[in-house]
Design goal:
Elements lengths: L1 H26 L14 E8 L10 H4 L2 E8 L5 E8 L8 E6 L2 E9 L6 E3 L14 E3 L6 E2 L7 E9 L8 E6 L1 E2 L2 E10 L8 E7 L3 E2 L11 E3 L3 E10 L18 E13 L9 E6 L5 E6 H6 L11 H7 L2 E8 L5 E8 L2 E4 L7
Parallel strand pairs: 1-10, 8-15, 12-20
Antiparallel strand pairs: 1-4, 2-3, 2-5, 5-9, 6-7, 7-14, 9-11, 12-17, 13-15, 13-18, 16-17, 18-19, 20-21, 21-22
Length: 354
């Protein structure tokens, strides 16, 4: 009888040891295991790429400084995890390590130092849904924007998280789009003495509130004001070559012309095709509009042959800087037959927007 009890204790101890070992192998991804598929967690590397630009090249390293990544359970729609990561804390390939239970998830990324210019909810794990993470631009009373906006980027991904261990993580990519634009407006006049302070420059658009899916949310009409203004002039030799000798001539009084210019620089939210962002330049003393145009229409003037396969919206999303030069005659009226946009000279007749 004593021998039977000893054998029973040995068998019970063996079962307990085997159970403990099995639990360890199936619940700890970092432990020494022979079959990594036994890991019950999904270890993921999420790479962040910003190549949705006119260079079709990844500019993440040079442009994006911070990332907010949110993971939602695809079945319940509830927030599972949020990670706010500085760019210098990412891997060399701009990756974030994300540890989840196996399953299907929806990932949302808002990137850039968005908290400086935009409001995005902090969220609560187990309660918040994707729809809660819309992005609203800071503005002054009446919808006025006077500051240089911090860059904003957006991306989403449907993730099917499989069993994976840290040594063999599942790798996925979130592609980002840029939601802010720099618009530089230059008034130029032959002769004269343009002073930027003589003019009011504004851009109006209702694009200051983005949904979680990067579509526009209903918002008030915003008025963007330039955050940088500058007046300047340059002397140009209008006849640099002697017609008889074919050699260069000196910059004499007869061939020298002064061009004066006024520069206004804006940062705006995402430009949406079908919307009407209106650039207005008004002379302060007379109260009259020098010009009033649809920014989208003028942006499309230089889309060009190489980009003809792009949709209008793709072009607006890829092109994040617009340099527009407009010419005034001696009386300060807009010469609408000639415009320079991003170094492209456009010669045409245009009826200003009323």
């Amino acid at each position: 009888m004593i021998l039977n009890r000893i054998n029973k204790n040995i068998r019970n101890s063996s079962v307990a040891m085997m159970a403990a070992l099995t639990w360890l192998l199936f619940t700890n991804c970092d432990s020494m295991i022979y079959d990594e598929s036994d890991c019950v967690e999904s270890c993921n590397l999420i790479q962040l790429v910003y190549d949705h630009n006119m260079k079709f090249a990844d500019a993440f390293d040079s442009e994006v400084e911070q990332v907010s990544l949110l993971a939602f359970d695809a079945e319940t729609g509830l927030l599972v995890q949020r990670m706010d990561v500085e760019e210098n804390k990412l891997t060399d390939n701009n990756e974030i390590f994300l540890n989840l239970d196996p399953g299907k998830y929806n990932l949302l990324v808002w990137a850039g130092r968005h908290s400086e210019s935009f409001d995005i909810a902090a969220g609560t794990v187990g309660q918040s849904t994707m729809e809660d993470f819309h992005c609203r631009m800071h503005r002054e009373e009446g919808g006025h924007i006077n500051d240089d906006l911090s860059h904003l980027y957006h991306g989403t991904l449907e993730l099917d998280a499989k069993y994976a261990s840290p040594s063999k993580p599942q790798k996925s990519i979130v592609y980002l789009k840029k939601d802010t634009n720099v618009i530089r407006v230059v008034l130029q006049q032959n002769g004269g003495d343009l002073d930027v302070d003589d003019y009011d420059f504004t851009i109006t658009d209702a694009n200051g509130w983005l949904n979680y899916d990067n579509t526009l949310r209903e918002d008030e009409l915003l008025t963007y004001h330039p955050w940088y203004r500058y007046s300047g002039s340059v002397e140009v030799n209008v006849d640099p070559v002697d017609p008889e000798t074919k050699s260069a001539v000196s910059l004499s009084n007869e061939t020298r012309v002064t061009h004066s210019a006024a520069l206004a620089e804006f940062t705006t939210g995402r430009l949406m095709w079908g919307a009407k962002p209106i650039l207005t330049i008004r002379h302060k003393d007379t109260g009259k509009n020098v010009m009033r145009i649809n920014v989208n229409d003028y942006a499309m003037l230089v889309k060009g042959l190489y980009n003809e396969k792009m949709s209008e919206q793709e072009y607006l999303d890829r092109q994040d800087e617009y340099n527009m030069t407009f010419f005034l005659d001696e009386d300060g009226k807009w010469l609408s037959t000639r415009v320079i946009i991003n170094n492209w000279v456009i010669v045409r007749n245009v009826t200003p927007v009323e």
